[in-house]
Amino acid sequence: MSAAALDVARNPALLKLDLYCKGIRLSETTVPEEDGGRKVLRTRAGLGSGLELVLPGGLWTNVPVTERFARDSPYELARRPDGTYWIERAGERLAPVQLAPRPAWYDRPTQSGKPMTRVGTLQGTYLGVYPAKVCEYWTEDTKVNCKFCSVGLNLGVDDADLKSVDEVLEVARAARRESGITYVDFNTGHYRGDTYLDILEPYVRRIKSELGLLVGVQTPPHHDLRRYDALRAMGVNRVSFCFEIWDREIFKDVCPGKHREYGQDRYLEAIRYCAALGRRGPWSEPWVTNGEIIAGLEPPASSIAAIEWITSVGAIPTVCVFRPLQGTDYARMPPPRTEDVVPVFRALYEACMSHGLPIGCAPNVHVSLVMLPEEARGLSSRRFPVRELKRQALKRVVALALTRRFKAIEARA
Ligand code: SF4
After folding, report:
1. Which of residues 82 and 1 earns the better pLDDT score?
2. Which of 118, 318, 359, 388 keeps 20 to 30 A from 396, CA to CA?
3. Strands 126-129 and 25-26, bridge-based pairing
4. Would you tell me how many other CB atoms lie within 10 Å of the CB of residue 212?
5. Distance 83 CA to ligand 1 centre (A)
6. What was the pLDDT predicted at 2?
7. Pairwise CA distance, residues 381 & 374, whole Å
8. Are residues 290 and 240 in contact, defined by beta-carbon separation less than 8 angstroms?
9. CA–CA separation, 161 vs 68, rounded Å?
10. Which residues line ligand 1 (CB under 6 A)?
11. What is the rounded distance in angstroms from the CA atom of residue 21 to the CA atom of residue 352?
């Protein structure tokens, strides 16, 4: 890679990754919330916490600030007298950043009286909703929760316990109108009896029919794979399966509940099955399957093997960077070193492009909690000019179709 590519001041992708691994300190006079920024939430969906920022190049990110390791970060967020924000290192300005704006609807209640931000929150530029009760791995007599996860520590603190379909619709409508969201992501934990899709389907149907938004669901792999045919027919656009770890022994140790209830093979089978559904209609609805892993809890070569398998079956990897969240079983573990995860993200971009996968095609979906495959382009010296042209063309087609759909819905309203 060139000298510029190795310099965090000139390579936003490297900066995004380094911030995940090292966190950031806030100077005493820096209170992003008072400047229209978003409040630092302790967690969402087990991994996120942190401060939402927009880096140069339009890379949205969620930077650790409350975790122990962030206290030793070389990076500091500084507010200049002119009101601009900069990431500094040893007093030297490295990169101008923007605070991810806190939407006005966050502070309003739903008609039922719940603060809207306890029903759903923006993660980057999409709406994330955890609509049901806490994952049952947390509530068994002997807990079998995933050891990196903090969902059971925080639900009910930053998040309401149960959200009705009407409440979620109300928040999604406000987020569409005022924040211009195009995508809603639903996330559940494990519930006995595989009820997670039964729980989510009423939300999905209403959002698709009334708002026309792109919708994704992230749940454990349902034992009846035909349920995913139904989701595809319903207009769901993304299914995501978090098996977290490729190495089978480490998987058993890190995710004891997932190992006992499903096993890694069931996750992989669901990914393979769902990726094949892309060949079916409805053609008006884009469809992607994600396999989600965490980099930093197994050797980089193992994460890369996971990426190679996921892309080989036509699915797109989602790669999180391990974050030792406060209060979790892994709170005292160190975060990964940047130099160890760079090759993983480089492999992510290169594998997705080599397989011609439709990465980065959803309009206005900027993700703060993970580095997206297309963002990881900045970590690779390989270029795929023909595939890149096809990708850009597909992106324009999806954007045009969605714009038309939203206009038709607005005209109907
Ligand atoms: S399945 Fe694991 S990561 Fe997901 S909510 Fe439950 S304990 Fe957390």
Report:
1. 82
2. 318
3. unpaired
4. 20
5. 39
6. 78
7. 13
8. yes
9. 28
10. 46, 135, 137, 145-146, 149, 151, 189-190, 258
11. 23
High-pLDDT (> 70) share of the chain, %: 96
Concatenate the DSSP letters of all residues of 56-104 into one string. GGGEEEEE--SSGGGGG-SEEEEE-TTS-EEEEETTEEEEEEEEPBPPG
At 295, list the tokens.
């980099």
Give the mean pLDDT of 246-260: 98
- Report the half-sphere exposure of 293 (CA within 13 A, side-chain side): 35
| Three-state SS at 218 | strand
pLDDT band of residue 30 (cuts 50, 70, 90) is confident
Predicted confidence at residue 155, as pLDDT, reads: 52
d(CA 72, CA 75): 9
Pocket test for ligand 1, best of 44, 140, 143, 151 (most atoms within 8 A of CB): 151
Please name the residue whose Cα sits nearest to atom 8 of ligand 1: 149
Sign for the pseudo-dihedral over CA of 26, 30, 36, 41:
positive
394 CA to centre of ligand 1 in angstroms? 34
pLDDT reported for residue 154: 63
Whole-angstrom distance, CA of residue 217 vs CA of residue 153: 22
Q: Where are the alpha helices (DSSP H) in 315-384?
A: 338-354
Dist. CA 202–CA 166, nearest whole Å: 10
